[in-house]
Amino acid sequence: MNSALKEVLDLLDLEQIELDIFRGRSPEERIQRVFGGQVAAQALVAAGRTVSSDRMVHSLHAYFIRPGDPAIPIVYNVERVRDGRSFTTRRVVAVQHGKAIFTMSVSFHILEEGVSHQAVTMPQVPDPETVPTFQERMFNVVGDDPAWRDWLARPRPVDARYVNALTWEAQKDPSLISAKNHVWFRYDADLPDDPLLHVVLAAYASDFTLVDTVLLAHGLAWGASNVKGASLDHAMWFHRPFRVDDWLLYAQESPWSGGARGLARGEMFTPSGDLAVSVVQECMIRVSEDVMKS
Hints:
Elements: H1 3-11, E1 15-18, E2 21-24, H2 36-48, E3 55-64, E4 74-83, E5 87-96, E6 99-110, H3 134-142, H4 146-153, E7 159-162, H5 167-172, E8 180-186, H6 195-206, H7 210-216, E9 227-238, E10 248-258, E11 261-269, E12 275-287, H8 289-293
Antiparallel strand pairs: 1-2, 2-4, 3-6, 3-9, 4-5, 5-6, 7-8, 8-10, 9-12, 10-11, 11-12
Helix pairs in contact: 2-6, 3-4
């Protein structure tokens, strides 16, 4: 297990400071705001710690209200909305500086038998082992630029392999612009058999590339001073058990953008083609006027 993954697992080990009140921290990095996937994952951990282990997460709906401050802890307040015979509902509010920065509603469900169908099929894409790593692709984009060298050399908690173009590649070559973004990902370590942990880590990874999918549709990329973006809301549905230490194909698309907002949706498939997770996110995308006119 590399140091980056160990750090993520440590971040998910929240401190309980009172009944239904938990405290989480952020990585010791010089970043402007807390990564949205981290807040969502920590909120999900907080909710899960108030629910019996026989109930699995089946959906979450979240709003990113304010940027998180990475310099101070985040307090997660859990409200026990309902404990029913089959379903359990929790509401989580993340607080910093006395104000809510994030809210999430989470629903848990006991395992039940029922009718079953899957109307979508996994896209036909190369096997993950044949796709270059993110770092290899980025080295081809930026070369030996010292401004990127240290960032690319850092270990990452998630092994992500992009089947389509990176946003930086599409920025240089408009023929690569697309509203679809397919990414294989996995956590490269043997993880415990805790179903909640795998759901939480899927939530953490789900926020890495959805805004990218909107940018990719316009040939825009992070790092440019004229592009600003942030997650606004996030919803996930968990359809079946899965493992994040095995490959998952994250098939994403952006059906719409406008009014400084963009919509992205994604589906996570197991290697056998089973639909495991559905995701929808709306994000803020602000671009300077000179870019929009070009």
